[in-house]
Amino acid sequence: MAGARALIRALRRVKIQSGRSWKQILKALVLLVKRFLDNPQVSELLRFIFLGTIVETGRVAGAKMVSTASFKQGELSYEWVSAYIDHHKVWNHSRTFRVVARDAEKMANRDLAIGGGGDGYPDAVYEPSNSEPELFHWRGKHWITISKNETEGSTSLTLQVWSRNRSVLDEFVQESRTFYRSSPQPPPKQDYDYSQSLIVGHFNQADFSYDWVLDYLQSENVMADANEFTISTKQTDAGWNREDAKQLVRYVPSSNTKQRLRWRGHWMQVEFVVGYEDGNGRTSGGSINILLHSCDKAVLGQFIEAARVHYTNASISRVTVHLTDNYGSWARAVTKNRRAFSTLILPGGIKELILADAREFLASEEWYTFAGVPHRRGYLLYGEPGTGKSSTIHALAGELGLEIYFISLAAPGIDDYTLGRLIRDTPSRCILLIEDIDCAFPSREEDDDEPLLDAKGNVIPKEPIPPRSQVTLAGLLNVLDSVASEEGRLTFATTNHIEQLDPALIRPGRMDLKIQYGLATNEQLEQMFDRFYPFNEDSLPELGPSIGCYFSKTTGTRLSASALGALAKEFAVAIPSGRYSIAQLQGYLLGSKNDPEGALEGIGAWIEAQEKAKKEMDELKQRRRKEAALRRAAEAAAEREVAEALNGVNGHVHENGHVNGNGHVKKLGSEEGEASDS
Ligand SMILES: Nc1ncnc2c1ncn2[C@@H]1O[C@H](COP(=O)(O)OP(=O)(O)OP(=O)(O)O)[C@@H](O)[C@H]1O
């Protein structure tokens, strides 16, 4: 408007100054404009401006008609949209692909694979790559152009939704998300860090939750989808292949394989990171990483709780023993079949006493708190080897439903510091088992005798000397008294040499109940025979000898319960009481598993052989000791002779000042000697 007014004012001034009429002035003006437009450059410029205005107006109007969104790989939203458009076969008309070799069976859109006809060889699969925009007629009413861009390792999808209403894009994204969440097809394996959007849980092998999760995942058959395995024949790996738990070859997850499974409506990715093996064949440092397709932390909590409950239930029939690694951490757990308490053969009332004591202790936590007494209890089981100390602890753990945390004080890497850490890391209500506690104190005299030889000149093995421990008495006492030991923990220590233990270690408060395990009494021997040869009425004699059904060698008839009882009594009295361990006799009876009469018949000869071997060994030891004593006496006499001879010389040397103040003779040829000679 301002421009038009200025033009009118200018024309007025021209009219006044020139004295021409308005008609003449306008005519001149039209002529001027016409000349100007006749100039081709000017007209071209004007046309350009005109067209530009139209295009720009169209573009602005068009931009209001389309919603654009891009999705970058590495973001979960990319996976939603990608899975959704794969499902709708958007790329089927594309002409730009990358061809990869995959198993077409596992592809979301199998139309993009050139199948090999099930020949067991990978198929050629077309993966859409940098593409021209593809048109997708979504829900039959909205047009969406989708293009894929790959530049320098970064991939993205760009969507243009042709609608004036942005809510169409919202709905599309929402639908992709829902589709992805509820898809029966497992989500693709993720290599990206989704910790910003999803819950990620790391379960380290050193933590007990690792065992829960491992056990739980085994039961969920997580390996079903895997295509990378380590083949194992170890019994401890049983479970990853559930089809036949007894088969010898097992498929265990290889390092860093990622498996997907759906858990209570949530997809999760399980990454199994294999640890490293130490010199003793124990692995540590492994982990299980779980990427949970949820951002609700409560879901992770539920998962852990489910794993814990599953583990606890599964352990009811088994006893779990936790072992340490070479670095002083809890490394792995092994499970053993529970040993029935009734299979322990101990003199009257001992096992009942231990069980009742432990039960009473576990049930009286409140009392301990009330009385201000640390809630812990120590048991020392001592006595001859092979008399049932370890077996008692395993049976007790099964009976009380507790796990065993086993520490060998002689294990490499266990010192005062690591021992303290191990104890701190054990949960409350467990059995802490410290085996061969005497090896913590190197007071035991080393047997430095020369090896004993038998009649044939073979070396007779010595009684094994427990390896020395780096743990000190003070360190062990500290750990036993520490606050960390006050949480309802039963500490069991075993030893074959109670006489070598410091009284401070076994005083009440540290070791509250001390139980001696002796060699088998007649009562125990009878019980043992009964356990080996029980009578089972239900066993069918026609099937031949079996557990609970034995036959007489002389008559060929089945042995009755009373006949077996009589054999047991005879067996017990045939063996001198307190002479052999249960383990020794167990070894003997294993040779006549289905033959009680044979076991009784052979026991005399067995005892004879044992006694003979023992006598020979004692004689040999005695002879050797005598020889060693004689040899030492001869050596001492020879040393004395040399010393006396030297003393004679020293009488002379002394004058030259060569005997030191302590009466010790300086070594000839030593610096001092040489100096004085010169
Ligand atoms: N009292 C027992 N009752 C039942 N079985 C026993 C008994 N004593 C020994 N055994 C059997 O003998 C074997 C060794 O027993 P165990 O390891 O419990 O003995 P230990 O006293 O702990 O020996 P060590 O002192 O050498 O460790 C086991 O197979 C066990 O079944």
From TrEMBL:
Keyword Cell membrane on entry: no
Domain BCS1 N-terminal: 194-344
Coiled coil: 603-646
Membrane topology, from the record: Single-pass membrane protein
Cross-referenced PROSITE patterns: AAA (PS00674)
Gene3D superfamilies per UniProt: P-loop containing nucleotide triphosphate hydrolases
Compartments in which it is found: Mitochondrion inner membrane
MF term (GO), any: ATP binding
Pfam families documented for this protein: AAA, AAA_lid_BCS1, BCS1_N
InterPro entries on file: AAA+_ATPase, AAA_lid_BCS1, ATPase_AAA_core, ATPase_AAA_CS, BCS1_N, Mitochondrial_chaperone_BCS1, P-loop_NTPase
Annotated keywords: ATP-binding, Coiled coil, Hydrolase, Membrane, Mitochondrion, Mitochondrion inner membrane, Nucleotide-binding, Transmembrane, Transmembrane helix
Source taxon at top rank: Eukaryota
Keyword Nucleotide-binding: yes
Location of the region described as Disordered in the Swiss-Prot/TrEMBL record: 649-678
Gene Ontology CC: mitochondrial inner membrane
Residue ranges constituting the AAA+ ATPase domain according to the UniProt record: 375-521
Reaction it catalyzes: ATP + H2O = ADP + phosphate + H(+)
Family statement: Belongs to the AAA ATPase family. BCS1 subfamily.
Protein name: P-loop containing nucleoside triphosphate hydrolase protein
Species of the source: Mycena metata
